[in-house]
């Protein structure tokens, strides 16, 4: 389970822990790119959950919403990038929502939340993306 929180203007990056999942806190001042920290309290590495944990920087927009890239490299897998991004319903409802994947709109994805808010949602994440429930 993942639980990002909405951006807070002027705040320092914050970690917000979620039970058995990951969470993100973020903040940015005027003219600054948003920084988000994804953390977890889970004792298990559910299908690479640790791949998602770390700091994310705003990189642009996709389908009308900001997307973010993990700033740290994954030990032993330095060539893998991790993105948090939104995908609209152009490919159907089952493929829309917020995603963690190795590229924006790519086929390698780790988690999905079918919500459509302006920022990554706090609840409703599925890890892996096609799990029966969040």
Overview features:
mainly beta, 9-stranded mixed beta sheet
Overall pLDDT: 76
Order of helices and strands: EEEEHEEEEE
Write down the Rg: 14 Å
What overall form do the CA principal axes indicate? globular
Number of strands: 9
Largest sheet: 9 strands, mixed
Discrete helix count = 1
Beta fraction of the residues?
A: 35-45%
Helical fraction: under 10%
- The first-to-last residue Cα distance is 6 Å
> Stretches where pLDDT falls below 50 for ≥5 residues?
5-30
Describe the fold and architecture.
The protein has 134 residues and is mainly beta. It has one helix and nine strands; from the N terminus they run ββββαβββββ. Strands 1, 2, 3, 4, 5, 6, 7, 8 and 9 form a nine-stranded mixed beta sheet that branches. It is globular, with a radius of gyration of 14 Å. 33% of the residues are buried.
Explain briefly what this protein structure is:
With 134 residues, the chain is mostly beta strands.
